[in-house]
């Protein structure tokens, strides 16, 4: 084997391959501050091509289009950027089953940041807090998920005048389904049918609850409530009370489907069912209750009873019974229809 050694003994080495005009086109330079591999000049672009054992080019670095190509010829390409301890931190992998962009490792979170033409970051994807941020720095962000025909189907758009969530397209209606902890659909917004579907039963509104005194009993779910002097609510305490407002929601197997006016007033607040199905405390001690009977407030605190006096019941009807009760007191499903 023959060796060509240039430099040493106080002198920097140099190898130069020149063109027919004498211009150096390929050079290897050992300088005091760097080691240089040079290829090309003004009239002839440089290129580095490396071949595998089968003679196939698998590495190509070309200045013509400023491109680096790794792989082909039966070989998958790979770019690996490692930390000082040798751990791969950034990788571009072409495997037989997937194409991979990897960033980060166990001790160093990955981040992808992209900049606009002004040099400001407008796209940031980070694993530290699992966030994707689009926009900022005078740029509005946008997420667009398109169908195979190229039409946008799902979009999140931040414009100068509005914030938009778009769902659906021609021939593909939008739908939003929200699931509970058992993976059962509990809320659905259906664009095809124009429906909002909620699995729970009643329409409720929050009210302040009157302070508990000797005249005001502690409030329980299912209690019939009437308006107090200050606009708050308290359990009913007399028959045919026209101040009746509804039933405390949430008793039995029914829950409120929609709750309005939920806010902090500094007082205890509870959802009162104004419309819909709810479980209610009912008193049938004096009069049996059948399905469909009109109900009003009873003398028994927080209870409803059958309205037998239609004249007295005017303006004091709470709703209709959805189940019978022959005698005594019980928690009964009713339909709240104030009138």
Low-confidence stretches: none
| N- to C-terminal distance | 108 Å
Strand elements, count? 29
Radius of gyration: 39 Å
Secondary structure class reads: mainly beta
The number of helices is 1
Shape from CA axes?
A: rod-shaped
Q: Report the portion of residues in β strands.
A: over 45%
Average of pLDDT:
93
Could you characterize what this model shows?
The chain is mainly β and 339 residues long. Helices cover 1% and strands 47% of the residues. The longest helix has 4 residues, at 310-313. It starts with 13 loop residues before the first strand and ends with a strand.
Short note summarizing the structure:
This protein is mainly beta and 339 residues long.
SSE arrangement:
Layout: E1 14-18, E2 24-30, E3 35-39, E4 47-51, E5 57-62, E6 67-70, E7 78-82, E8 88-94, E9 99-103, E10 111-115, E11 121-126, E12 131-134, E13 142-146, E14 152-158, E15 163-169, E16 172-173, E17 175-179, E18 185-190, E19 195-198, E20 202-208, E21 224-227, E22 233-235, E23 244-248, E24 256-260, E25 269-283, E26 294-297, E27 304-306, H1 310-313, E28 317-321, E29 329-337
Parallel strand pairs: 20-24
Antiparallel strand pairs: 1-2, 2-3, 4-5, 5-6, 7-8, 8-9, 10-11, 11-12, 13-14, 14-15, 15-16, 17-18, 18-19, 20-25, 21-22, 21-23, 23-25, 25-29, 26-27, 26-28, 28-29
């Amino acid at each position: 084997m023959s060796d060509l050694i240039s430099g040493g003994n106080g002198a920097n080495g140099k190898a130069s391959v020149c063109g027919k005009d004498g211009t150096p086109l390929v050079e290897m330079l050992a300088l005091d501050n760097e080691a240089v591999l040079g290829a090309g000049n003004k009239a002839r672009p440089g290129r580095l091509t490396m071949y595998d054992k089968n003679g196939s080019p698998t590495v190509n670095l070309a200045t013509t289009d400023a491109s680096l190509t790794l792989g082909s010829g039966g070989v998958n390409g790979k770019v690996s950027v490692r930390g000082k301890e040798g751990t791969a931190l950034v990788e571009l992998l072409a495997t037989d089953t997937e194409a991979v962009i990897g960033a980060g490792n166990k001790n160093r979170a990955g981040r992808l940041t992209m900049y606009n033409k002004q040099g400001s970051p407008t796209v940031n994807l980070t694993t530290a807090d699992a966030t994707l941020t689009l926009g900022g720095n005078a740029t509005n962000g946008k997420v667009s998920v398109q169908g195979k025909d190229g039409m946008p189907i799902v979009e999140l758009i931040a414009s100068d005048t509005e914030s938009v969530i778009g769902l659906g397209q021609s021939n593909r209606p939008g739908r939003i389904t929200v699931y509970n902890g058992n993976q059962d659909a509990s809320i659905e917004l259906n664009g095809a049918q124009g429906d909002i579907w909620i699995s729970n039963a009643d329409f409720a509104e929050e009210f302040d609850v009157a302070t508990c005194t000797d005249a005001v009993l502690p409030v329980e779910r299912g209690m019939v409530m009437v308006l107090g002097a200050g606009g708050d609510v308290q359990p009913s305490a007399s028959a045919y009370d026209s101040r009746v407002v509804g039933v405390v929601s949430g008793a039995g197997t029914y829950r409120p489907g929609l709750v309005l006016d939920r806010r902090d007033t500094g007082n205890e607040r509870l959802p009162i069912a104004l419309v819909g199905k709810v479980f209610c405390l009912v008193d049938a001690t004096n009069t049996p209750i059948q399905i469909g009977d009109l109900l009003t407030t009873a003398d028994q605190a927080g209870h409803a009873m059958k309205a037998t006096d239609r004249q007295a019941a005017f303006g004091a009807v709470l709703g209709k019974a959805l189940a019978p009760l022959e005698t005594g007191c019980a928690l009964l499903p009713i339909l709240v229809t104030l009138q």
